[in-house]
Amino acid sequence: MAAFIDWLSNTGLSAWIRESNSLWAYPGVITFHSVGLAIMVGLSAVIALRVLGVASGLPLAAMSRLYGMIWVGFVLNAASGLLLLISEPTLLVNKLLWFKLALIAASITTIVRMNRRVLLTPEAKANRVPDGGRGLAYATLVLWSAATTVGRLTAYLGQ
C-alpha cells in the first residue's frame, strides 16, 4: 500500500490538485464536493422529513421525483471525492475514511429502500406512510449526519 500511496502522491494530477493556485484545482474540487453533498444529503433529508410529517401538504409519492437529482449529487460527490483522495492519497490508510465510506453505503442503501418501500407504494399515493417508513426516515437522517461528521473529521484526525 505504501508504494501505491507514494506513486499516486507523485502523479501530476495529485500534485496539481494539491499545489496549483488555479481555482479549478483544490478550491474547485472541494466546492464541487460541497455542492454534491448539499444536493444528495439535502434532498435525502427533505424526503426523510416529509416522511416524518413535515410539510404534510406535499404529496408523499411525488417525493420520488427527487431521486434523479440525488443521483446527480452522488455522482458529483463520488467524482470530486476521488479527486480529493488522489490529492491526498495518505487518506487511504485513515480508518475514518473507511468508516465514512461505510456510512455513505448505508445511507445510500437506506434512501434506495425508502424510495422502494415508502414512496413507490400504494400507501404513498394515498399520502400515507407505510409501516417501517418512519424508521427508514430516521435512519436516513442519522446516517447522513454521521457520514457528514466523520467526513469532516478525516481532515483533522490522524490515522
Describe the structure.
This protein is an all-alpha fold and 159 residues long. The protein is 72% helix and 0% strand. It is built from seven helices and no strands. Helix 2 (12-19) crosses helix 4, helix 3 runs antiparallel to helix 4 (67-87) and helix 5 (95-119) runs antiparallel to helix 7. It is elongated, with a radius of gyration of 18 Å. The two termini are 14 Å apart.
Please tag this protein with its features.
single chain, 159 residues, mainly alpha
Topology, pairings included?
Layout: H1 2-9, H2 12-19, H3 26-51, H4 67-87, H5 95-119, H6 122-125, H7 133-154
> Which radius of gyration do the C-alpha atoms yield?
18 Å
| Count, helices | 7
The SSE order reads HHHHHHH
Strand percentage, roughly?
A: under 5%
What's the main sheet like?
none
Q: What is the strand tally?
A: 0
Query: Which stretches are low in confidence, meaning pLDDT under 50 for 5 or more residues running?
Result: none
Output mean pLDDT.
Answer: 96
Q: Would you tell me the structural class of the helices and strands? A: mainly alpha
Per the principal axes of the C-alpha atoms, what is the gross shape? elongated
Percent helix among the residues?
over 70%
N- and C-termini, Cα separation: 14 Å
